[in-house]
Amino acid sequence: MCRTMLVVIPGLLVAEMALASGEHGGDHASMGNADIDRTIRVQAGDMWFDPQGLRVAPGETIRFEIVNAGSLEHEFVIGDTHAQAAHREMMQEMGGGHDMHEMSGAGHDDGMGSVTIMPGETAELVWTAPDNADDLQYACHIPGHYEAGMSGSVELQR
After folding, report:
1. What is the rounded distance in angstroms from the CA atom of residue 106 to the CA atom of residue 27?
2. What are 115's strand-pairing partners?
3. Residues 6 or more apart from 70 whose CB is under 8 A from it?
4. 91 FRET partner, CA 20 to 30 A, in 26, 82, 142, 148?
5. Which three-class secondary structure state does DSSP give residue 81?
6. HSE, side-chain direction, 13 A CA sphere, residue 127
7. Prediction pTM value
8. CB atoms < 10 A from the CB of 12, how many?
9. How far apart are the C-alpha atoms of 30 and 46, rounded to whole Å?
10. In the beta sheet, which residues pair with residue 56?
11. For the chain, what is the total number of helices (H) and then of strands (E)?
């Protein structure tokens, strides 16, 4: 079961997530309870992410700082391709955009983490890489964004 606490600071949206390991082996760690191994800054533009790929160690806890440098709302969703597909389908059914309150209760008990970033805003997400997964990625699933190439690969370094 996912418990999410959102803290809004002017100009910065921080999502603190605490989640027990799901069936896909990943977990999220609350920033207050986790040792952060490193911080990765990701830029989200209109239909792109920079960087386009990441290498992480199994069990590594990462603080993602996601900057929306574009003019559109975006999301940063990280997890395996199965969970990504399910989230993409849910977003299509919802008709696209959403606010953080809707997403905060989305029940990401599948090793997935997500934040929504408005234009010009920065969001943080703390995520712990699963010990074993071969199909991790991050993406934006607002309708049309993923299809336009707004995704990146995550490779586990073993």
Report:
1. 15
2. 76
3. 44, 45, 46, 47, 119
4. 26
5. helix
6. 33
7. 0.73
8. 12
9. 29
10. 156
11. 2, 11
